[in-house]
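ok so I'm stuck.
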Amino acid sequence: MTMITPDPTPDRLTRVPGLLYGGDWNPEQWPEEVWAEDVKLMAEAGVNLVTIGVFSWARLQPDAHSWDFGWLDRLLDLLHGHGVAVDLATATASPPAWLVRAHPELLPVTADGVRLEFGSRQHYCPSSPAYRQAAVRLTRALAERYHDHPALALWHIHNEYGDHVQECFCAESAADFRRWLRERHGTVEELNRSWGTAFWSQRYNSFDQIEPPRTAPGPVNPTQVLDWRRFCSDALLALHRAEKAVLDDVSPGVPVTTNFMSMLKALDYWEWSRHEDLVSDDAYPDPADPRAHVNAAMNYDLMRSLKGGQPWLLMEQAPSAVSWRPVNLPKRPGLHRLWSLQALARGADGVLHFQWRASVAGAEKFHSAMLPHRGTTARGWRETVALGAELRRLGELAGSRLRARAAVLLDWDSWWALELDDHPSARMRWPELLRPWYAALHARGITVDFLPPTGPYDGYRLLLAPNLYLLDTATAERLTGFVRAGGHLVCGPFSGIADRHDHVHPGGHPGPLRELLGLVVDEHWPIPDGATTAVRLGDAHLRAEHWSEWIETEGAETLARYTSGELAGLPAVTRHRQGRGSAWYLSCHLGTDVGRVLDLPLAEAGLGPELPGLPEGVEATRRRAADGTEYLFLLNHGPAERRVPLERPGTELLTGTATGEGLTLAPLGAAVLRLPATEERP
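replied:
not stuck anymore, here's the structure
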């Protein structure tokens, strides 16, 4: 019998040594005689962590007055006896029918006044006292019973907050919103100033007159909607914090997480991550998308960045096909392995899945599993076992970190405000603005972190801001200090427009960035759908889509000009040197052409690829251990074999072989090299 022993190495996600491997196990869906078979197969696959109880509320608490923990006692004992640790969920993501019927007011209400029914999951109002009290009671019961169980390695609160219910418009939510507004604004006079209620005679005499932004005859006050977005994120976070407070009190020392959903608009993950012991993420790239790995890398970089570069956990991914897309393609052989290694390459210390054994009933019965419907004769099972063996070979890299010298600025407030109604163009959406910038960096082998605009900026040479629609003066001053001290800032269009109340900065755009960027925007000039505007950068001919701006320089030098349309001859891309650094401005959305512009500040900042000479389609990242040992990941996402040159010899950990001046990667092939410690790369 393998026993779980504590691992004293810093930066471990849990006390389980090595990399974490496993997934959601839902044994309540199966007779107990299946459990023994499952744990034996887990041992064969190298599973060392399973998530238990995510949707077990009705089993744990059959009614308001009784509990049933016997089955869970037996389950945890069984797992511990086979050396498998437990990520124990609080089961609060799906309130049982008895609670809903006793408190029908806890069901969520849409903006149109429709109350959603029981029969799915996350069917609760975030502001419901009945739901919160029941959830906290269940969490406390679990914590008091299992806080010292030897199988317990991690607490898992709820499941995918904001997946189905991000907001509720019922009377209880309205009252909670008013409480939140009082705390934020203090007085109704201040709220009127912040919301600009002089417009359209929207002035309030008291907080009691305020309601959520329900469906109305026309456009709703944009600052009211912005505050509503902030409130909805905070309301869900309050539920999470209530459960975490119980776990911290009753079960101190056991780390607590909740599974994020990659780059989710609804929740401000900068604020949420402050209340996580470790960050975990659910990621489901689409096998039908040939560029899915680029977006996955972007999301993983965000997860790594949320707690300052600490290792994170891939809590869920699909072993093959999902069940919720219109067409659900399976992962072709080798793709699941490659994408799992990509999470590790981007800083994860574990690879978990939904789920362990494929369900035979319910909405997710066609979702793939580590143990498919066909059982141990299935292709998927062979890949499950093979991946587990490879992760054991990579166990030594747990706790190592990535180091980036470039960072992307991401602000949820600005994202929410950017995508409000009644703007010059509805095509200015944060994900669509970000992805081409990130894809260009990914293609050039540049590792990036994400940062809130407020920083800290220490250690970064280059800050990239595809959009900063909301920007206050204090943040603009920080960015100015970064540039004058020798940093480089690249700012995208429609930035510096409004303050934190979504009021337009007076004096012309880009507001508080005007002096730093050395220009003023005379007029926004959206580009119609299907049309483009030509831009010339040196000898390169680029195409802008969706957006352009009439700008006039005030000290900035013009690097690229528009060469077609009404803006022909006007500046399109500028650079303004300030102190020892420079601030760049892209006044248009260049789509896939943006990389031609980003090459210039990258060169000026002295940033190059993680591995020089990297072939097209090969992704490279480096993790560094505390003792200086480097782990170089090489991932071939392309359909052809690639020869990769190496800087120095090392050991390829997946095969245990020594490397020379280069190695060859098969299509969907991967290598993980241990390289001797050297001085950290500048």
